[in-house]
Every structure is written in C-alpha cells, then in structure tokens.
Write a structure and sequence with these properties.
The complex is a heterodimer of chains A (394) and B (506). Chain A has 394 residues and is mostly helical. Chain A has 16 helices and 2 strands. Chain B contains 17 helices and 24 strands. Classes of the chains: A mainly alpha (394), B alpha/beta (506).
Chain lengths: 394, 506
C-alpha cells in the first residue's frame, strides 16, 4: 500500500524529485570523498556566496528561455557593468547608494536594447545577444584598458559580496558560536512553509483536486522541514546569513511570486507555450519580450555587482562564461527549450547543483580540464533525464 | 475465402487509466476503400498507430496479419517496409524542399555514394503522373496548396510501393474540388490494386466512396458494413457511432428579424505586404444583434484573412475602410484592443494558434481575460477555479478536472475550451472560424446548441465554415467570399448549396 502510493507519487513528480535526489547524491558523494569537509559550515557559506552571481543570472535566463529566446550577452555585460560600478566609485566618487540603482538601471536599458531587434523585427535573439557578447566584451576591455584591474576600496559595496547579516541575538552563553538570527529566520521560514503547504492542501481538497495521501503529505512536510532546519543549522555555524544569500533569496521570492501568482507571470508562460495563441488572446508578445529581456538585464547588473563586490575589484576578464553557467544551471533546473516550461525555484536548485559540483571538484583538487568534462556530462545527463521523464508522462 | 490484405485481431491497447482499444478486430479486403468512422476518442487513430508501428509490438496485445502473415512492427519503418503508408492530417512534408526531394526523402535514389538527382526527378515525375498532378517536380512544396500537398504525400507513398494506404482525415482541409479529385484518385488507385483505409468524420463522403465501413465506439468495433450487401446511410452510421439516434443535426432556433446593427464594415480592403498582393477588396458586411452570419468560401478565398483583419490585424496587413461597432467608428490596432471593444475570434487551428496545449483547462479558459479575476495584478486562484468549473459544467467539457492539461482532451472538448475562453471575455461579436472542424457528430451538435443559446442571449456570431451544410443549417444570413471579394449575400431561406458554390467560384 505505502509502496504503491510512493511509486505513484514518485512517478508523477519524478522530474521535480529527481533534482533533489541528484543534489543529495552529489552532496553525499562529496561529503564522503572530502572526509566531511564539503558540508562544513565554512564551505557551505563559501558555496552559497559563490553561487549568488550565477543564481540571479539563472533566474533571469529561465524566463528568457521560457519565452523561447536566449541571451548570450549577459556574461560580459555583467563584467562590463561591474567595471562601470568600479569606475563610478573609484574615479568619479559617486556614493555607493547612487551607484547601485544607476547600474541596475543601465542593466535594464541594456536588456531592452538586446530585445529591440527581437521584439520589433523578429531577429533571432541568438544573433542579437551574440552581437551583445562581442560588444560588451569590447567595452569591458576598453574601460579597463588604461588601468587594468580596478581595486574597489568601498567597504559598503564590498559587504554585498563578502559581508554577513549582523547577529541581533548575539550571546556568549546561549548556543555559543552559532548565529542566532539565522536560526530564528530559519525557524520562521520553516513555520511559514508548513502553514502555506497546509493552506494549499486544504484549498485543493475543497475543489476535489488530487492531493497526496495524508501520511505522505506529513512525510513530505517533515523531510523538507528537516532540510530547512539542517541548512539553517549549518549556515549558522559560520557567521550566519551572508548578504549575498539574502539578496538571492529575495530575488527568488519576488520572481516566484511574479511567475506563479500574477497576471504578468501567466502572460509570460502563455507567450512561451504558444506565442501565436498568446497574441490572439490579446497579449502583446513584443511587450512581454521587452519585459523579460529587461528583467534579464536587471539580473545581469545585479550579478555584475555581486561578482565585483565579492572580488573587491573589477577585472578585464570578469564575466567570462557566466552566460553559459547560467544557461547550464537553467537547464539543470528543468527549463524547456520548447518554451512555456520552467520554474524560478528550479533555476535556484539547478544553480546549487551546478555550483556544488564545481565547489566539490575544487575541494578534491580535480584537474580543471577534467572538471569541464564532468560539468558537461552532468548537464547533458540532466537534460536527457528531463526529456525522458517528460515523454514518459504523456 | 480470399485472405484479406489486412487483419487485426483482438487488439487491446491501454494507456494509464484508459483502455483506448478494447478487443478490436478489423479486416480489410484487397482492393477496397475501407472507411473507419467513430466519434473522437473512439480509438480510430490509436488503431492506426498500432498498425503503423508507432505503438511498437509488445505495447499492445493482439495480432496483425498482412496478407495472412503475422507481423510485429517495432517502428514506422518496419510497417513502411511491409507496404503500409499512413498520411496524417498534419502533412509531413518539408516545405522548403522541392517536390522530388520530398517524394524520395528517406529512400533516396542512389548512384554509388551519391544521390542520383536525374533519376530522382525522372521517377518523381512518373509518380506525379500517377497521382495526376501536372506540375514541375522542382516546385517547392511551400508554394503548393493543401490539396496538392496531399497528392504529393500520396505520390511519396506510391514511390515506396505501397499496398495499403491509410489516410487520416484527408479532406478536413480540402475544398470540394480537391475532395472530388482526391476521391477520383483513390478509385483509380483501387483499380491498380492499392487498398485504402480512410478515417473520416464527413459521413457524406464516406457514403460516397466506401466499399466497406467499420464503426468504432469507445474502443470497440461496433460493426462492419459492406456497401454491396448493407445499407449505408448517414442515419445508420450516426446511430452506430453514438449508440443513439440524432434526429436533427442542426438544433432548431427561432429566427427573427435582426434590425439592430452591431457590427458594420464598409469598403474594407487589406493588402498583404509579405505576399505583395491584396487579400481583401472593398468588403461590405453587416451583422445584426443576435444574428448568426455565415461566411462561405473556398480555402484561400480570404475568409480567415477577413476575420483576422478585423480582429486587430495581427498579420499587419495594410488596411483601409471603416469599422463600426454599435454605430461607433472604431480603429482597432491589435487583438488586445479588439477584445476590449467586444470582438472575439476563435481560430480555425485550435492546436496551432488557438490553445496553449501544455497548459491546463483553467489557464486556457482565463488567459484572454485574466484581469477579470485578478486583484492589483495578482490572479485570484479561487476565482479562477470557480470560473473554469462554471464553464466546464455549462459547456459540458469532459475532463476529470479543470487542472487537466489541454493536450490530453479530445478535439471536441478542446474546441469547447476554446469557446469558453472567448465566452469569458463576454464579446458582442464572436467570430468562429471552422468551429466544428475535425470533431465528431455528438460534439458538433453540442457546439451548435451553445451557439444557439448565445445568440438567444443577444450575442452576434460570425461563422466561417468550409462545410456548406453547416453554413446552411446554422446561419440566418450568408455572405459568400471569393478571391477577397464578397460575391453574394443570401438569406438562409433562399440559399442552397448550388447557389453558394456558384458564387464561391465566380
């Protein structure tokens, strides 16, 4: 009975659960091979901070792929905008609180420029964004040409990539060495998760929609709560939440809300699912294209800021291959090139899987050449898994 | 007794939760045209997919015998080698390639390592002669009409020495001339020894061409009728298909005078800049409140172009002329504006540009009017389920829940979802382009009833259709379109098929 239920639920959700299982397996292997180093608080904090700039790009990229487009320009655009931020701070002495919104606005503008030929003339985004890739690479070299790497001395700016949320409940006696604010936030997240799952289940039941059998629902709640608790515990062991993680979580929450709850989100998925039907349903495909590329530009600017802040500098090579990391993370996260399918939470998960792989292989001192081969293998395996499970459900 | 060309014995095919074919037996004699009829979801297409190897041997139970020899097709190429060719409703030609390349695609004529193009063209010309298509084999398939493309498909099948030709809804997209031509060809091929299986919803055609008819219902064989010994009539077939008698194909409606004008179009012309030719030439048209206006015309006459040009002109034709809605002149720049001024358009191609197949029923129903169920940009999930469930019940959409993905519904139910979507925007004028294409008799009747209810409530409907009986049965007034012009306007009472065809070909 239980086995049968499990089988049914599992086969219906294999795509979603598959990613979690892959993540757990990858983490387990690295934990074992590194002798416990991988899941140490310090390494996890490092891993999350490393993932930030890819995660925000993957979130933006997922929506771009959902509407059947691609944006190759984001890597060097992120590098270029990071360099502009550095120049504004170092050479023009503009205050950091002005620099950040200006960079974000420039990102949006760049996204809209990439979108223009796509939305208005039907030119493939592969081409326009490839042109962007070349142009921003050139611009990045131009602005850093005179100085080379620009060191950013601004402490506020650098906090974004390296700082941690201060502990409001610091105490030397109660749970010493743990970041109490992180634990409190983790607890709040856990409670919120349980309540929202319960409400959603009630609602579905009231419409007679299919729901998990009750004991499986409880099992799901318990296991996911355990994961949230474990993550908060590990993170609290080393300085607690970093600002990067806070920013990424806010971005993911905002996009999750946008894509699942709003009219705009539904229009985006409609355009991805069938652009012609969407147009004939009164949705302006060109408007949605501008919007999604604009959001991609915003995320690119954010990524550039996160990366420059993390390195406390702007480099002529910043942004190299970011676009491909983001695309790989999106595909591992379950986005479909055929359009209309792909979740923001998937993008986050895909990023974590991808970055775990990089981080773990680095810990093991794997040869960089071999790392590329392994990353390629995982990417293609993830997509094959995705496609076959999709067909199986038909 | 002579061995039949094809015998399928006790075929059972199950999908998760559904028995699509339940013990179907089906036998076709040599040199006959055998029609396979049944409502949507009766199992016709599934049966043909089993036969063609698309569902490989082992995924179903039962036996397939070809000329008495048991077969185990694992793929389409297996069945092709055995001499079976299936021509689907959606044609499988490469538009950018020439006719001869298409005909020999996948079994190219070789000369050593390379393709022998001269021989290919020679043989292609021969095949085209067989299907009586007098055209240069170097023509690109893109430049052919649907009717001719179908002939190319048949030529392709003939080039593989086909014994058994299966045609799935071959006439759905054809006009009457092309239909007649196709049937002529099938009879001719029959004399040459090619056996055909024809899946069709158009019972008139079935009666006209079939040597034998097998009726499927709910995954089971109901009966096989033989043209020589049994009576084959529409009434008989419908009774067997639905298991009940439908006395009226078109539900009755009270017909009034429609004095109050809702939509008026004057001197409406459209020029297609991509094709570089006019598609509509000074069209004048009027629609009254509560009226069903039929638009008849052949494929390519400008019917669909007309509908799209008034529905916000998504093809960006250069337009001239005026459009009045309830006496107010309107300039409509895009479909969004069309919807908000009160015009809705359900497309002829519900799978291609009507529905979002990968989304569920409720999402498809609400997509054109999400604002109605949204508060400050956030969709109210409860309201959405409520609205969708109301339409599901009102239009009798057969689906386990409104969370079902639309791709899993039958054609008739998809069409109802498409209707629901447009009813939810509460239009004043609803344009239905081929509202019953490819759906079964029962679902057709339901759609007609829905249309009657809508006009009774004061909505106006413009119905575009290739099926003249439908135009005659449902319209209050009929416009006939030919080559972008309105060539006639008829009251329903004074119209008949001959008059319309005359106007449509003038």
């Amino acid at each position: 009975m239980i086995v049968k239920d499990l089988q049914k639920v599992f086969s219906a959700n294999i795509r979603e659960y598959g990613m979690y299982i892959a993540l757990i397996v990858i983490m387990g292997i690295f934990q074992w091979m590194t002798g416990g180093l991988f899941l140490s608080s310090r390494n996890i904090a490092n891993l999350f901070n490393q993932s930030g700039y890819v995660a925000v790009l993957a979130v933006g990229m997922t929506l771009v792929i959902v509407i059947r487009q691609i944006d190759l320009s984001v890597g060097f655009l992120a590098g270029f905008l990071g360099a502009i931020a550095a120049i504004m701070l170092v050479q023009w002495h503009i205050p950091v609180l002005l620099v950040i919104p200006m960079i974000l606005a420039l990102g949006v503008l760049a996204g809209l420029i990439t979108a223009y030929p796509v939305a208005k003339m039907g030119i493939p985004s592969f081409v326009t964004s490839l042109a962007g890739w070349l142009i921003y690479r050139g611009l990045l070299l131009m602005v850093t040409g005179a100085t080379g790497t620009i060191i950013i001395p601004d402490p506020v700016f650098n906090q974004i990539g390296n700082g941690f949320v201060p502990d409001l409940f610091a105490s030397e006696t109660f749970l010493p060495g743990l970041h109490k604010t992180t634990l409190v936030l983790g607890f709040i997240a856990l409670v919120w998760f349980m309540i929202s799952e319960t409400i959603s289940r009630r609602r579905k039941e009231s419409y007679d929609f299919e729901v998990l059998p009750f004991y499986l629902f409880v099992m799901k709640l318990v296991s996911l709560s355990a994961i949230i608790a474990a993550i908060s515990w590990i993170v609290s062991g080393y300085n607690g939440l970093s600002w990067t993680v806070v920013i990424v979580l806010l971005v993911v929450m905002a996009y999750q809300f946008l894509t699942t709850k709003t009219v705009l989100g539904r229009h985006i998925y409609a355009v991805g699912g069938n652009p012609e039907a969407a147009e004939l349903s009164g949705i302006s495909v060109s408007k949605i294209t501008f919007l999604v590329f604009g959001s991609m530009g915003l995320m690119t600017a954010l990524s550039g800021i996160l990366f420059a802040a993390r390195l406390k500098s702007a480099m002529p090579t910043a942004g190299t291959l970011f676009e491909l990391d983001a695309i790989a993370a999106s595909y591992i996260g379950g986005v479909s090139a055929a359009g209309g399918v792909g979740k923001v939470t998937g993008a986050l998960l895909g990023t974590i899987v991808y970055m775990c792989l990089m981080n773990g292989l680095n810990l093991l001192n794997t040869d960089i050449a071999l790392q590329y081969v392994i990353r390629g293998g995982v990417l293609v395996a993830a997509v094959i898994f995705d496609v076959t499970t999709r067909q199986a459900r038909r | 007794m002579i061995t039949p060309v094809l015998e399928m014995r006790r075929i059972v095919k199950t999908f998760p939760g559904v028995k699509a074919l339940n013990d179907v037996s089906f036998s076709v004699s040599r040199g006959e045209i055998h029609c396979l009829v049944g409502e949507n979801g009766a199992g016709k297409s599934t049966l043909m997919k089993v036969l063609s190897g698309l569902y490989p041997h082992g995924s179903y139970s039962g036996e397939i015998l070809l000329e008495g020899v048991p077969q185990q097709f694992r793929s389409i190429s297996d069945s092709t080698r055995a001499g079976i060719a299936v021509i689907y409703q959606e044609l499988a030609l490469v538009p950018e390639m020439s006719i001869y390349e298409n005909i020999f695609l996948g079994h190219e004529v070789r000369n050593g390592m390379s393709v022998d193009w001269n021989e290919t063209i020679k043989r292609a010309a021969e095949m085209l002669r067989k299907v009586r298509l007098n055209i240069n084999p170097a023509t690109k398939v893109r430049d052919l009409g649907v009717g001719r493309q179908q002939l190319v498909e048949i030529a392709k099948a003939l080039s593989k020495n086909v014994k058994l030709l299966i045609l799935d809804e071959p006439t759905a997209a054809l006009n009457e001339d092309d239909c007649a031509n196709l049937f002529d060809l099938l009879r001719h091929l029959k004399d040459e020894g090619v056996t055909s299986i024809l899946i069709s919803h158009k019972l008139k055609e079935v009666i006209q061409i079939a040597d034998a008819v097998t009726v499927l219902r709910d995954g089971q064989t109901v009966c096989t009728l033989n043209a020589r010994s049994d009576e084959i009539s529409e009434a008989v077939l419908i009774k067997q298909m639905v298991g009940r008698e439908i006395s009226n194909i078109y539900p009755p409606r009270e017909r009034n005078h429609f004095d109050e004008t809702i939509l008026e179009i004057r001197d409406w012309s459209a020029y297609d800049t991509n094709l570089g030719r006019p598609v509509l030439k000074s069209v004048n048209l009027r629609v009254g409140k509560g009226e069903i206006v039929g638009i008849a015309g052949l494929m390519g006459s400008g019917r669909t172009e007309f509908a799209r040009s008034i529905f916000g002109n998504p093809d960006h034709y250069e337009l001239s002329g005026t459009l009045f809605l309830q006496g107010q002149e309107q300039t409509i720049r895009n479909p969004k504006q069309a919807i908000s001024t009160g015009i809705a358009y359900a497309t002829e191609d519900r799978k291609g540009n009507g529905l979002i197949l990968i989304q569920d029923v409720k999402q498809n129903i609400t997509i054109a009017n999400l604002r109605e169920i949204a508060k400050s940009g956030t969709v109210d999930a409860n309201a959405e389920v409520k609205v969708a469930t109301e339409f599901k019940d009102a239009l009798n959409i057969k689906t386990p829940s409104v969370e079902q993905t639309v791709v899993n519904l039958s054609g008739g139910n998809q069409q109802k979802v498409s209707l629901a979507k447009w009813l939810f925007v509460k239009p004043k004028v609803l344009i239905l382009d081929e509202p019953t294409r490819g759906i079964d008799v029962g679902a057709k009747y339901e759609i007609y009833c829905i249309m009657n209810d809508l006009v009774a409530e004061g909505m106006s409907i413009i119905m575009i259709s290739s099926e003249l009986p439908e135009i005659l049965g449902m319209s209050d007034r009929i416009y006939v379109v030919s080559a972008g012009r309105i060539t006639g306007e008829l009251q329903a009472a004074e119209a008949n098929q001959e008059i319309i065809m005359q106007m449509a070909t003038s």
